[in-house]
Amino acid sequence: MVTRRNPLFDTATTLGKILGFLGVSAICGVLVAGLLVPAAAVSGSAASGSIQFFDTLPAELQVNPPSQATTILAADGSQIASIYSENRTRVSLDQMSPFIKDAIVSVEDSRFYEHGGIDATGIMRAIVSTARGKQQGASTITQQYVNNVINESLVSQNKASDVKLNGVNKGVGDKLREMKLAIALEKKFSKQQILEGYLNIVFFNKDAYGIEAASKLFFSTSAKDLTLPQAALLAGVVNSPSYYDPVTNPDHAKQRRDLVLGLMLDQGKIKKADYDAAIATPVTTKVTQPRQGCPYSATAAYFCDYVLHLLYNNPAYGATADERVNRVSRGGLTIQTTLDPKAQAVAQTQVDSSAGANPDKWGASLVSVQPGTGKIISMAQNTVWLPADGKFQAEQNFNVDKLDSNGNDLNGLGGFQPGSTMKPFTFAEWLNEGKSMNTVLDGTVRRYPQNFPWKNTCPTPTVGWYDSTNGTHDLQNAEGGYYKPMTVVDGLANSINTMTFATAARVDLCGIQKIVDAVGIHGGLPDASNPNPKVPMTTLGNLIGSTQTAPLTMASAFATFANNGTYCEPIAITSVTDQTGAKLPAQSTSCRSAVTPEVAHGVAYAMQQVLNVGSGSLIQPRISTKTNFPIAGKTGTNDSNGSTWVAGYTSGLATATWFGDPLGSQSRAGQNVTINGKFYQGIDGYMIAGPQFSNYMLQVAPTYGTNPFPAPPSNLLDPPGYKPSTPSTTTPGNTSPSTQPSSNGNGNGNGNGKNNG
Fold first, then answer.
1. Which of 616, 611, 609, 623 is nearest to 699 (CA)?
2. Which ranges are annotated Gly residues under compositional bias (predicted)?
C-alpha cells in the first residue's frame, strides 16, 4: 500500500517549497549566527542553545605536517629505500602545476577565494538539495583540510578508529566543530597556504597521499609537470578515489574529468580551445607503483633493516615500540647512513658467488667497517628478502645480533660459532703480559684435567676440561703433524689448538676476558634482561670459539688492531633530519682504548703471518703482505664445519666473512656436502669464506688505505734470552721461522670436544 503524502507539506507543491525554504533559512540562520556573530555581542539570555554550543568549540587547529615518507640514504646520497605508512612527498605550491590548483578549486570549492572558511551559499544549496531528496556536500576546501588534519592526527596517535568521515560517522556536532575550525584556520593562514596544505594531505589512492605521490603513481610525473587533462582527472579522483580510479575505472574517471574540465571552462579558468583539446584526450595512465620498505631495496635490504632496528630500539624516537615505528614511518625523516654503494656491490657479488645455486640453504655473509670511525661500509648476504624462484629467502640479517634483525624464519639466529677467529685474543693477552711471540711452547699437550691450575683472577670460575680419562675428549688439532713444540706466533699462524691452550695456560684467563670485552665481543643473542651478553673466556671452549657471535661484532673487534688498539663501536647512521630540517639523534664515532698500540702492532704482525705462510695462505685468490698490500687476518672453523670464517683487516678496512648453516639450531655439519657443484669432505674457513674475503678486500681495501702496519717492539719479537751483539737491523717478517701451511682452522664447540680445521 502506497503512503500518501500530505499535499500541504509536499515539497513538490508551491506551499511545500515555501515552507521548505523557510525551514532551511531558519537552520542557516542559526549556523550563520554561530559562525559570524562574535560571542561578546550575544547576551547570555538571548543566545540560543546552538550558539552557546558553538562558542564552546575549540577556536584553534594545530596544523602539524602530515605523514611523509622517510628516506634512507647511502653515504654518497643515493637512496637505499623509502619507508612510509602513507606514500606522500610534500611539495610547495609553486612546485604544482597551475592546472591542478585551478582544477581542484573549480570542482571542490569554486568560491574558495571569496569565503572565510565556510560557504554560506553552498550550505543553503546543500540543505535545499537534501530537503528535496538529493544528497549534496557543502564542505569547502578549508573544511576538508581541517577534516584531513584532524584525521591525520588521530591516525598518527594510533586512533584510527576515531576517524570521522562524511556520510559515515560524522554528526552535526562534528560538522559545527569543523566549520569553526575552518574559520579559525582562515584567520591564521593565507589561501595559498591552505591550498598547499590541502593538496599535500588529500587522499588519492592507498598508494598515493598528496598530489606529488598521485602524479608519480598514475602518470609517472611530478606535480609541477601535470598537463591539463591529467590535472583535471586527479582533481576528480578526490571525490571518490575508488570509483574514479583511472586504472580500475577509466570510464568513470573520464566522466568525472570531463565534468571538472567543464567547470574550469565555465569559471574562466581555461579557454574553449584548451577545453576541447583536453576533452578529446583519452584517459591513459603510466603507473609507477611505489615500492616502500627495506625488502624492496635494490642495494642493501638487510643493512636497511638494521638501520631501522637501530631507530626502533632507540628510546629517543619514542617511549614505546609503536611510537618509534610511527615516528619513522610517518615522520618524513631523512636518514644518512655510512654504506658505500660501490663496496656494497662488490660484497653482494661475493656472497652470491659463494652460494648462488643453493637448494640446501647454506648461508654466506660479509660485513666491513672502517677502523677509527666504526662506520659500516658494507653488509651483504646471499639471500633475498622477498620470495623468488630459485633463491634462498630469509628476513633475518646474518651479520648482526638477533635484536638488530627482523623476522622469525630462522629461529634463534644471532651470530655463529666463530671458531679460531677467537684465537688472536689469547695471543693478544700473551703480548699484553710482555711475553715474546717467539717463545717456544709445548704443543704436544692435549690433556687439561679438571684440576688443572689455570690462572684466573676473575670472579667467574673456570669451566670445562679436556681429559679422555674423565668423561671428555683430549684436545685435538685438525692435522696430526702439529702436536709438537713451536713458537707462539707459529701456533697462531697455523691455528693450532694445542698451542692456543699452551698459551692460555701461561696467562691470566681474566686478562683474555678483559681484552675480549674491550674490543666489543659479545654473544649475538641479547635480550631485555641481558642486552650485552659477555662471551665468558673462562669457559675453555670459548678460547677456540664456541659461543655464537655476529660477524659485525667480529669485524669491529678486528678493526681495533688496525686502529692501534683503539676500539670504535660500529655505526650505521651519521645524521637524521625531520621534514622541517631539524636534526634528530643519530650515531657518532665512539671509541675507547682496548689494548696498547704495542699489543695491536704485535697482533697485526702475527696475523700477517696467517695470510703469508699459515692457514690463510691457502685462500684463493691469494692475498698477502708479500704480493698485494699489508693485510692481516685469521681463519676460523667450528667443530662440525658448519660455521666457517675469515676475519681480517688492512690499515683502513676491517672485514668479516662467514659461510655455513644459518638454519634453526645451526646443527648441520659442513661435511660431505656439495656447494656450487663442488664436493667438500669438510668445509674450512679458507675454502669459501676465504675467497669472499680476498676478492672483496683486493677490490675495496685500496680505496680505504693500505698503509704498512707499525712494527711491534723488539721485546715482543725477540725470543727469551736473545741478546744482539750489535744494534738489531732485523726487520719484522724475518724473525719468525717459516712453517708449512696448514689447513688448521679451529675450535671446539662445547669446551670438551675435538678440533676441526
1. 623
2. 746-757
Q: Are 576 and 586 in contact, with CB atoms under 8 Å apart?
A: yes
Q: Is the peptide bond before 621 cis (omega within 30 degrees of 0)?
A: yes
Report how far residue 264's alpha carbon sits from residue 103's, in angstroms, rounded to the nearest whole number: 6
Contacts with 45 (C-beta within 8 Å, 6 or more apart), sequence order? none
| Cell numbers that stand for 679 in this block | 664436493
Residue type, 376: I
Cell of 277: 583539446
> Is the model more confident about 626 or about 452?
452
What is the distance between the alpha carbons of residues 145 and 198, in angstroms, rounded to a whole number? 5
- Determine the distance from the C-alpha atom of residue 367 to the mean position of all C-alpha atoms in its chain, rounded to a whole number: 15
Q: What is the span of the domain harbouring residue 41?
A: 14-54
Consecutive H or E run containing 73: strand 70-73
Residue 695 lies in a domain: no
Q: Residue 98 to residues 105, 138, 230, 653: CA-CA distances in angstroms?
A: 11, 24, 12, 52
Contacts of 299 (CB under 8 A, 6+ apart): 74, 78, 80, 339, 341, 344, 345, 348
List the single range of 5-19, 207-221, 441-455, 578-592 with lowest mean pLDDT. Answer: 5-19
Q: pLDDT at position 24, please? A: 47
Of 232, 255, 279, which residue sits at a domain end? 279
Task: Indicate whether 737 pLDDT > 90.
Answer: no
In a domain? residue 147? yes
Using the structure block, give the residue that is written with the C-alpha cell 598521485.
214
Amino acid at 635: T
Q: What is the domain count for the chain?
A: 2
Last residue of a domain, one of 251, 279, 307: 279
Whether the CB-CB separation of 636 and 546 falls below 8 Å is answered with no
Q: State the residue for C-alpha cell 578549508.
A: 142
Answer yes or no: do 197 and 123 share one domain.
Answer: yes
In the predicted model, what is the mean pLDDT of residues 254-281?
98
Residues 104 and 243 occupy one common structural domain: yes
Together in a domain, 175 and 39: no
138 and 29 assigned to the same domain: no
Q: pLDDT tens-digit profile of 270-288?
A: 999 999 999 999 999 999 9
Rounded CA-CA distance 115/133 in Å is 27
Asked if residue 133 belongs to a domain, the reply is yes
250/144 same-domain check: yes
